[in-house]
Amino acid sequence: MQQPPRIHLFQGYGIELEYMLVDSNTLQVKPITDELLKHELGHYASDFENGIVTWSNELVLHVVELKSSKPENNLNGLEHAFAENVERINAILAGWDTMLMPTAAHPFMNPLHETKLWPHENNEVYNIYNTIFDCRGHGWSNLQSTHLNLPFYDDEEFAKLHAAVRMILPLLPALCASSPILDGKVTGLLDTRLKFYRTNQSRLPSITGKVIPEAVFSRRNYINTIYEKIKSDIAVFDPQNELNPIWVNSRGAIPRFDRGSIEIRIMDIQECPAADLAIVSLVIETIKAFVSEKFLDVDSQMKWKTETLAQILERTTEQAQDAVIDQPEYLSAFGFPEKSAKASALWQHILERMIRSGNEPIENRKREIDVILREGTLSHRILKALGKDQSKENITGVYKQLSGCLAQNKMFFS
What we know:
By secondary structure, the protein is of the alpha+beta class. It has a single domain (14-408), classed as Creatine Kinase, Chain A, domain 2 (2-Layer Sandwich), CATH 3.30.590.20. The chain is 46% helix and 14% strand. Strands 1, 2, 3, 4, 5, 6, 9 and 10 form an eight-stranded antiparallel β-sheet that branches. α6 (155-168) packs across α11 (273-291). The radius of gyration is 20 Å and the shape is globular. The protein starts with 13 loop residues before the first strand and ends in a 6-residue tail after the last helix. This is Glutamate--cysteine ligase.
């Protein structure tokens, strides 16, 4: 298959949003993504291209992915296209008393009993994964995320981009956490999905590493040190060589050298495209600032140890924006003057610095970003809405409100 032409840093972006299909009344998962795609295509298949947005299947039948059909640089236009496709899908699903539901994890799905894997084309890979890892767990069949694909043209651009992305990854749960409930209970973690993401492939540690990628900054070194290790480790479970190490790699950011992009994979999906695209815009502009050395020179970025960044990520996974970052060197990398601060204060500092510099993409998204920094991550807002009543009825009511926010492309206020 011919690869699309490569583009340079920040010339376009690939965005992917994953949503659950649930019963409109009970919120039980509805494993009918194949029927949704068949409704549009006339037959069972994996993808339906609808202009600049494509609908795709995922591992399980109760999740649909909406993704940009090609790299886009107009994120406002892409947001509206996502919202229009959500509306169209909901109109179709209404015939099955079904709707799309946001957030990164279903609050009371039982994956051991309710998981149904995609049974149609290209399901060989899913079957192998299921054989190795048993994909009925929360980290496989109950997780929805937002993926951001950032382009690079050559090794020089990859090195700059990979260094910058590593710096940002630990802070992402402080913006994006949206999975505070599993099995009908508050878990005590604000980004529970990410906890499972970190551990669900622990049988083969080389697949996920420490989630924060290793400090590797060339295609040759990455293949030799990471992809070859993954290939060797999975070979015993995959004698037919069905699994490509590039697909298997589950670090928080994954380079695709074949198409020239790094895919960030640890962002919980939000309540609506407006919120997701606001976060994506802030993440992109922050990465741009690192690549252009407005915060810290590239050589210094490359020296950051994976273990140190992983420790910060562990804290934000648990506490999101309330996580205390007490590493002065990390704060200083962003030009933050204090020696200790909550992650929310660091993001506020980044936002204000962007606004002062006249950053138009951030100015256009300031309203949504302000909601997140002022009212809290979506996990914070969900828990506030629940209050002390954590009954299934109240949880159902809150997640119906969230589904309404998705349908109307509006942010959720508790």
